[in-house]
Structures are given as structure tokens and as C-alpha cells.
Amino acid sequence: MAEGEESLIVALDEAWDEEAGFLGKLRAGVFDESQGNAYVELLRRIPAAISIGSDTVSSELVKLIWFAPQFVEWQIDRVAKDEAERARLQRIADRVHEAVSEVLGIP
């Protein structure tokens, strides 16, 4: 695994950390919009950092991102405190879905 790929995998894994990561905090019922935007930008870095386009993609990468769009979507009703926050979280959910779709493709 190349150094850039390794650091990206570490950052994607940290996003699931319950105390500090965007997805981990969301699981705990805490929505941090700035962390959500940073997570989307992290996802958008994947194609530049990892050689995508061959027939195989790192299983670790897939493990860390394939579930994220659905996970964020599931948290909206549970976490959003009001309609404005719901709309902001929905925008991030949409951007996460787009970014993951760009990396993994759509069948």
C-alpha cells in the first residue's frame, strides 16, 4: 500500500471513531456540520490518492466507505434537532452518496 493510500485509509477509519470522527459522533447522536463537510472532502480525495480504475480496489477502502451513504441517511431523523439541521445533514448525506458513487461506481 502506498504512503498516500495508507494515510487516507487511516483518515477514513478515524471518521468512524466514536469520540472524534464525523460518522462516530453521528452514531452517538451528534451532528457536526464542519466535520461532515471535511468528511466529504476526504472522500473526494480518494481517486487522487488511490489507484482506481483497475479491476480491484482495496478491500479496506471498500469496508470503510461502502456503508457511509446509507448510514448517514439513516441518522437524519434520529439526530437532526430541527428542520434547518435536517436540511444541512441531508445535504451532507447527498454529498457523501455522490462522492462514494464516484469512487465505487454505480452498477
Short description:
This protein is mostly helical and 107 residues long. Helix content is 70%, strand content 0%. The two termini are 26 Å apart.
Distance between the termini: 26 Å
Note the beta-strand portion: under 5%
Residue share in helices? over 70%
Mean pLDDT: 90
Topology as H/E string?
HHHHHHH
Domains, number: 1
Number of strands: 0
Ranges with pLDDT <50 over ≥5 residues?
none
Radius of gyration: 14 Å
Overall 3D form: globular
Judged by helices, strands and strand pairing, the structural class is mainly alpha
- Total helices: the number is 7
- Largest sheet composition: none
Give an overview of the whole structure.
The chain has one domain. Helix 3 (33-44) packs parallel to helix 7 and helix 6 (68-79) runs antiparallel to helix 7. With 107 residues, the protein is mainly alpha-helical. It has helices at 3-14, 22-27, 33-44, 46-49, 59-65, 68-79, 83-104. 22% of the residues are buried. It starts with a helix and ends with a helix. The chain has 7 helices and no strands. The chain is globular.
Compile the SSE list and pairings.
Layout: H1 3-14, H2 22-27, H3 33-44, H4 46-49, H5 59-65, H6 68-79, H7 83-104
List its salient traits.
7 helices; 107 residues; 70% helix; mainly alpha
